[in-house]
Design a protein that fits this description.
binds uridine-diphosphate-N-acetylgalactosamine, Rossmann fold, 13 strands, 39% helix, single chain, alpha/beta
């Protein structure tokens, strides 16, 4: 039985990873500072995991949490491009300093392998599509720079200390439990939640921008594969985690109208600073080296996600107590 340390375990990706690790019969230790993570995301598995309220910026606590750990799945981060544009110092601290701390602790505690949640934002507005790992990175926002710096730290720890590391460039991961309530929430969580409540969403820009939206189960499977893939094929390297298809925001809104039954129209607002225009991955390296394949496509993922948000909205109805006759 292996022990997995999941940083950011109370986030929607971290909590999905925790469920998958438990399901394969392994042990989960999780850390979260609960800045954006929510303990409700762990509700029914809380008893089965070793959960610690720890910030990745606290090196001593991360050292302690890394003791006896086989694999680290490093998800803790402050996401969001616009948030980093407003607060580059905070983005850098959590995403870069936090990652260095996780790596130092993993090195010192002799962890077998560290898997890192890197970001497709590292590519920026590359002129050619799809985006391949060998392309020269061109990060636009502070968030993208910080996530890319994390990748470089990952490969440097492999090269300098022999710590096994794998970076997974996530392409717009979405799914159940993604928080829709923050102004920095991912677009699908926001749109689905608004549309289910009959409220009008806003597209920033002309809506022609496109994303390789990737259902969370695909990211979970990539992490588990990355832990076991042969060292010489994956360590110190970067892999796209995506579906290899894309949809524009206008197309996405139209699909969501059908799934949610929303009757209204979308509003348009100004394009966001730091926004990438088009994003679609080449997943051939992940397929050949990790054995990755997308398990759930975009539309199926949207259906599953909408179903989940719907089930969260439904009030709990207590059955009436039987009337004595
Ligand atoms: C970036 C990364 C993604 C992940 C994420 C973490 C890219 C291509 N992707 O996602 O992999 O690391 O950061 O935060 O860099 N939008 C609207 N209306 C809204 C909200 C968003 O139109 O209410 C637009 C937004 O301007 C963008 C698209 O929707 O064009 C996606 O935005 P997002 O915040 O969901 O994710 P994105 O692409 O910045």
């Amino acid at each position: 039985m292996a022990t997995y340390l999941i940083t950011g375990v109370a986030g929607f990706i971290g909590s999905s990873l925790a469920r998958a690790v438990l399901a394969q019969g392994d042990k989960v230790r999780g850390v979260d500072n609960f800045a954006t993570g929510r303990s409700e995301n762990l509700d029914e598995i809380l008893e089965r995991i070793d959960l610690r309220t720890v910030d990745v910026l606290d090196l001593d606590a991360i050292q302690e949490a890394s003791k006896g750990v086989d694999f680290v799945l490093h998800q803790a981060a402050i996401p969001s491009v616009p948030r980093s544009v407003l607060d580059p110092v905070g983005s850098n601290a959590a995403n870069v300093d936090g990652t260095v701390n996780v790596l130092v602790a993993a090195r010192d505690q002799k962890v077998r392998r560290v898997i890192y949640a890197a970001s497709s934002s590292a590519y920026g507005d590359t002129p050619s599509l799809p985006k391949q790992e060998d392309m020269f990175p061109n990060p636009i926002s502070p968030y993208a720079v910080a996530k890319l710096a994390g990748e470089y730290y990952m490969s440097s720890f492999y090269r300098c200390y022999g710590l096994e590391t794998v970076s997974l460039r996530y392409f717009n991961i979405f799914g159940p439990r993604q928080d829709p309530t923050s102004p920095y929430s991912g677009v699908l969580a926001k749109f689905i939640s608004l549309m289910l409540h009959g409220e009008q969403p806003t597209i920033f820009g002309d809506g022609e921008q496109s994303r390789d939206f990737t259902f969370v189960d695909n990211a979970v499977s990539a992490n588990l594969l990355a832990c076991r893939a042969p060292r010489d094929q994956v360590c110190g390297r970067v892999f796209n985690v995506a579906t290899g298809r894309r949809a524009s925001l206008k197309e996405t809104f139209a699909i969501l109208k059908t799934i949610t039954g929303f009757q209204g129209e979308v509003k348009f607002g100004p394009k966001r600073a730091g926004d990438v225009t088009h994003s679609i991955a080449d997943i051939s390296r992940s397929q050949s080296h990790l054995g990755y394949k997308p398990l759930v496509d975009f539309k199926e993922g949207l259906h599953k996600t909408v179903d989940w948000y719907r089930s969260e909205m439904r009030p709990v109805v207590t059955p009436p107590s039987p009337v004595a006759s």
